[in-house]
Amino acid sequence: MIERYTRPEMGRLWSEEYKIELWLRVEVAVCEAWAERGEIPAEALPEIRRARVDLARMAEIERETQHDVIAFLRALAESIGPESRYVHLGLTSSDVVDTALSLQILDAIELLDRDLAALEAALADVALAHRETVTIGRTHGIHAEPTTFGLKVAVWVDEARRARRRLRFARQELAVGKLAGAVGTHANIPPEVEEDACRRLGLAPVAAGTQIIQRDRHATFMAMLGIIAASLEKIATEIRHLQRTEVREAEEPFAEGQQGSSAMPHKRNPILCERVTGLARLVRGYVMPALENVALWHERDISHSSAERVILPDACIALDYALDLLTGVVRGLTVDRERMRANVDLTGGLIFSQRVLLALVEAGMARQNAYKIVQEAAMTAWREGTSFRALLRADPRVTATLTPAQLDELFDLAYHLRYADTAYRRLGLLPNQ
Questions:
Q1: Within a domain: residue 424?
Q2: How far, in Å, CA of 291 to CA of 284, rounded?
């Protein structure tokens, strides 16, 4: 059964409490790096490490100062006492904010990767379970040629893996800190202090920066989230189409007691996949502000900050939820094998038209002539609902080229599916032979 989930882990990562925890971690790491060089007395470190920030007090100070980092530092000083004079030595606000933001995004990436791993596993299970479930492949929404439902889902497995690779790339882009002062010159904080503090935080220092970590890195991360969201919408849209009354090949979970419509008791609507679709649109919409944040005035302005306070947490939380939701849909998916097979036969054999075309060409007929013959029969079968094979058997141009046995052989499903396991082997879902 699919329920409405709250996602407390991702929400906590983007909470005010956790943000301040990370700001404090950055300040402590810098103090430790200074102490390593004798610029801060070692006996001051225990008190600094024990420091905590009263968020209510910080908010009170911020109402007065209109500056969040100053409010943080003043509230922190009240917690530490005299040793607070050693905190924030040589730093500017963005040193703390941007370095902490990198840590925050890395934590979010870890959760999103875990979500993607769960989706990948669910998709792999369905792909293997339906490895031999014959279904019709569609192009432009129209019946094309036979495939298997498992192969359709194996394509999604591959896409989930690419999404995880993209997240790892985004992680590399943002596994950096910047502790170089007001315009990135290290005027008041030596490079070795930056390098030491970043190492303590598990980050690499940026090779070159201004007052901030450059926002092309964050735009890369947001673009990766947008692409992942697009992939989720792709899967959700396919399931929605397969659940349509006229198709009815697969269906998202419908719980006992669930009701689809206030007016029509028969309704079983794909509301979960529709929800994923809506969330995907939202996440993609956040990519554009991230791209626009790349261009700032000179060494830095603050136009990016207000947008990031919305787009980063919202995108991560929405995508985290959408991934969890779609994973539940995949695990609870109902697949109607019989309906799939019935739909394969729906067009009276039209899906074998390419095989007939190729057989006529291979037998010596000019391609354009063969195409015209096959198309004429196909259009008649489509329009009148008659058997495509029977029409071909009645066409002397065909029977003069192909024997009845040869023609019958062209309508064999196994021919189309004989290489279907190739994708499974390439994905490692089946052993190589």
A1: no
A2: 12
Among the listed residues 79, 88, 94, 140, the single catalytic one is 140
* Catalytic member of 15, 261, 303, 306: 261
Residue 425 one-letter amino acid: R
Rg of the chain taking only CA atoms, in angstroms = 30
Catalytic residue check, 140: yes
- Output the domain CATH number for residue 233: 1.20.200.10
For the chain, the domain total comes to 2
- CA–CA distance, 116 with 288 (Å, rounded to integer): 23
Does the model's pTM come out above 0.90?
yes
The span from the CA of 118 to the CA of 225, in Å, is 17
Q: Which domain holds residue 382?
A: 350-410
Cα distance between residue 88 and residue 77, in whole Å: 11
Residues 21 and 118 in one domain: yes
Tell me phi and psi for residue 37, to 5 degrees. -105, 10
* Statement to judge: residues 229 and 248 lie in one domain: yes
Please tell me the distance from the alpha carbon of residue 150 to that of residue 168, in angstroms, as a whole number.
Answer: 27
Strands (E), 170-256: 176-177, 204-205, 250-251
Residues 318 and 372 in one domain: no
For 238, list phi and psi in degrees, rounded to 5: -65, -45
- The candidate with the shortest Cα–Cα distance to 289, out of 301, 314, 307, is 307
Q: What does the pLDDT look like over 39-76, one tens digit per residue? A: 999 999 999 999 999 999 999 999 999 999 999 999 99
Q: Would you give the DSSP letter of residue 350? A: G
Over range 218-246, report the average pLDDT.
97
Calculate ∠ Cα 260-136-348, nearest 5°. 110
Report if residue 99 sits inside a domain. Answer: yes
Structure tokens at 29: 């790491």
